[in-house]
Amino acid sequence: MLSHDRIWAAIDALAKSHSLSASGLARKAGLDPTSFNKSKRVTGQGRPRWPSTESISKALRATGTSLSDFMALIENRAPDATEIMSKYGLPQLRNVPLLGFAEAGTGGFFDDGGFPVGQGWDEVQFPSSDHDNVYALEVSGSSMEPLYRDGDVIIVQPGASIRKRDRVVVKTKEGEVMAKELARKTATQVELVSLNPEHENRVIPMKDVEWIARIVWASQ
Q: What percent of the chain lies above the pLDDT cut of 90?
């Protein structure tokens, strides 16, 4: 039986199965980023608000999900992801902290080494046990295309060794957060190559860098 709670739970499960947040799934589907947010699930008068069939259709098309698979999520008949991973010897899923790039530029979310701290983090599942101390950043905008698109999730590992041609996330002391390719790093500066050819390469003095972390995985 269809219910308001089960349909929204299925949308959340669909997003999580593709390592996306609810807003990331909406962006991937070409919808307003807030379309699937929890605040949109109830009206201002407290009545349940149902997602439109058009929104659901776009989300299914964007993720390559069949209607029958989505119905299985609604009816809670989908196999447990952990059981599937174990059965076929695949890496186990585990939750890691998730933050949007816009929020990452503000204070209070990272320590001096670029590790997650504080409140306000969401979570996303990461299908690997090979990396410790990782977190996720949700891409917004087109500045990282064609490699990373709006709504993609990248997994970042602070403290990991980095070398030339690694893809990295850099945060400056002014709060700018960017994903680039490392061209060269010295004691005095870091040289970065833009992933989008329409954006300039950057040379940043090390005194202006708050932290650099290597990108180890992306949900493309």
A: 29
Q: Give residue 82's pLDDT band: very low, low, confident or very high (50, 70, 90).
A: low
Nearest to 184 by CA among 205, 163, 199, 200: 163
Task: Tell me the torsion sign for CA atoms 199, 202, 208, 211.
Answer: positive
- Give the up-direction half-sphere exposure of residue 208: CA atoms within 13 A in the CB hemisphere: 12
Q: Are 63 and 26 in contact (CB under 8 A)?
A: no
Spell out the residues 6+ positions from residue 217 whose beta carbon is closer than 8 angstroms to its own. Answer: 126, 128, 131, 154, 155
Look at the block and give the residue holding tokens 């993720």: 63
Residue 88 has pLDDT above 70, yes or no: no
Residue 84 has what pLDDT? 44
* Residue partners of 175: CB distance under 8 A and separation at least 6: 105, 106, 107
Spatial CA neighbour of 25 closest among 63, 54, 81: 63
Task: Give the pLDDT confidence score for residue 220 in this predicted structure.
Answer: 58
Residue with tokens 């989908």: 78
